[in-house]
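A favour between colleagues. Tell me how you read the following sequence-structure pair.

===
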Amino acid sequence: MIKRIDIDELKVGMFVHDLNCDWMSHPFLRNRFLLKHDEEIRKIADAGIHEVYIDTSKGLDMVNAPTLNEVKSQLESEILDMAQHHSAPPARVEAHVELGQARSIHREAHKIIHEMLQDVRLGKQVELEKINPSVERITNSILRNNGALLSLCRIKNKDDYTFLHSVSVGALMVSFCHSLGMSREQIQQAGIGGMLHDIGKMKVPDAILNKPGRLTENEFEQIKCHVVESKRILHATAGITETSIQVAAQHHERHDGSGYPEGLRGEAISQLGQMAAIVDVYDALTSERCYHKGMPPTDALRKIYEWSKFHFNPELVQAFMRTTGIYPVGTLVRLESGRLGVVVEQNEKNLIAPLVKVFFSCNSNSPIMPELVDLSRGLGFGGGDRILRHESPEKWKLDPLRYL
C-alpha cells in the first residue's frame, strides 16, 4: 500500500515510493529506494522535502498515515471546491479560430529561441530586439484566447526540450500575468524573462544537459549553476529590464526557503519569481523526457497544489489553476454519460464545467457525431453532463488537438 508520511516519520527500513517533489529539487539518482542509512533521511530533509510516499509492501509501515488514494481524494475535493467558486479569464475568440495563428506564432518563437540560445552557446551577446516581436505576438494570441497557444505548448520533442520549454514558460508567464490583471508592459517583460529563463543552461555541458537518465550529485550541482549563469548573461544584455531578470533569477527559489541559488523565502522572492517557479515546474511535469513520462495537466496541477503547502505560494497556485483551468483546453475527458470529448473552452464562471466537444461513446465503443456540450448548462439546454476524469490520449490512440 502507498502512504504519505511526514519527513520526521521516516525510518530506516521504509521503502520510498515517491520523493513527492519535482525532479529538479532533489539530488537522488532514483525516486524509489529502500532506506538503509540515517544519512539518506538527512539527505532527503536537506533537499527541502517535507513529505514522501512510502510503499508498505516493500518496507516498514506507518499505521495511521493516509493512503495515496485518500490523499488524492482529499486534494481533488479541495480543488473542485475551489474551482466552483472561481472564474477563468474570458476569451475574445474561440480556440479553434485562434489555433491556426497560434501554430505559426509557436513555430516562429521556437525558431527564434533556438537560434538565440545557440548563439549564447557560441559566446555571442543576446540580441533582445530579436525576441521582443515574438513575445508581442505571443501576448496578442494569449489575449485573444489563451487555450489555443497553451495547448500547443504541451507538445514537445524530447531532443528539443530546452528550447520548447523556454517558449512554453514564456507563454505561460504571459497568460498568468494577464489573468492577474498586470499591465501590458509587465506582461511583455515577464514573457521575455520566461523565454530566457534557462539561457544559462547554454553554459552547461551538452553531456549533462541532454543526459538520458538521472543526474549524479556532481552533475546536479553543475546544472543548478544555470540560474546564476542566466542572471549573469541577462545583466550583460542591453535593454533587459529587472522584471525579466527576476523571472530567470528566481524560478528555482521555493516559498519555504528550500530553493536555489539564494535560498530566498516567502515574500523575499518577487511575485514574478514565485509565479515563474510554478510555471516552470508545471511545464516540466507535463513534458515528456527520455527519463520522465509527462503527466496529464490535471495531475500536474494536483501535484503543484499539494506542494503549495511548502514550496509555492498557495494563493498564486490557485490563481494559476484559474489561468489554465482544472481541465486545460485540449484535455481529453470522460463524461458521466460515457462519452469521450476534448475541452475546447473554459467556463468563465465555473472551472469544472468547461465546453467539451464529444465524439466517442465508451458505452458502444464507437465514434459518434461530434457535439458541443456546455457542462455549465442543465439537461435539455446543451449540458446535463459532468466530467468524471481525464483520459490518456495514448490509451485511445488519438490527438485531442484534431477536435479543437
About this structure: The chain has a mean pLDDT of 91. The radius of gyration is 21 Å. The first strand starts at residue 2 and ends at 6.
